[in-house]
User: Fold this.
Amino acid sequence: MAKISAKQVKELRDMTGVGMMDAKNALTEVDGDMDKAVDFLREKGLAKAAKKADRIAAEGLAATYVDGNTAAIIEVNSETDFVAKNAEFQNYVKVIAEAVAKNKPANMDEALALEVDGQSIADLVTEATNKIGEKISFRRFELLEKSDDDAFGEYLHNGGLIAALTLVEGTTDSDLARDITMHVAAINPRYVNRDEVPEDVYNKEEEIQKEIALNEGKPENIVEKMIKGRMNKFLSEISLTEQPFIKDGDQTVGQYAASKNGTVTKFVRYQVGEGMEKREEDFAAEVASQMK
Assistant:
């Protein structure tokens, strides 16, 4: 019997969208032959998921779940936004978010292997694909940890098209943490504070500002002062704690947190489908094609 490698299992999963154990069992059954393994899965009733494996799934929902001092944020994708409104799909998303928060996997492989009622999340995703009739994929997750003296903020916009999670240390005021999380969802800061801004990001912007100043015909001797001021503005605009608080523009987010003895230390913001290829299709034409 051929030895089945983790690489082969991953390749078959990527090709077919089936769960880890289904992929491994199929390869074992056919002595490691990839083509025969695909056929085997189809024969076992997983053809629907396999046929949809190469489709683009860039819609869906993001969600959060808090379990004591652990909070999870996840994104689960579907092919169309119609499915995101489906109660069954929403339940799958909730189940996955809860499992991730309670089990704290270290990476996506561990997350997909988590069991819910005797079924792995990978198999749960395949089941969702078969039941709902669209490719469903569990794209990403992140975990935040806090102490008893800190607070999590959760916020979902438009039912989960945007989800945000924030950790505020030094206070247990959940209302404050939620307010800050709403700001994160709305304004989309890039970093918690200016100290987090990577050197390469800073240097790239500085070069751009130098070119702008020189192209404006400014004298060389005042360009340096202009750059300093513009870079200070740039850092404040991309740093959460220095942004004007969305509910009170007279104070920054950092000042608002400090007013309750809090300090924002982490945030995560997911927007469904960000960075993914979106399919561009005529929905009416697609429906018509299905009716032929």
About this structure: The first strand starts at residue 59 and ends at 67. Confidence is low (pLDDT under 50) at residues 280-292. Strands lie at 59-67, 70-78, 115-116, 119-120, 137-145, 151-157, 162-169, 244-245, 248-252, 263-271.
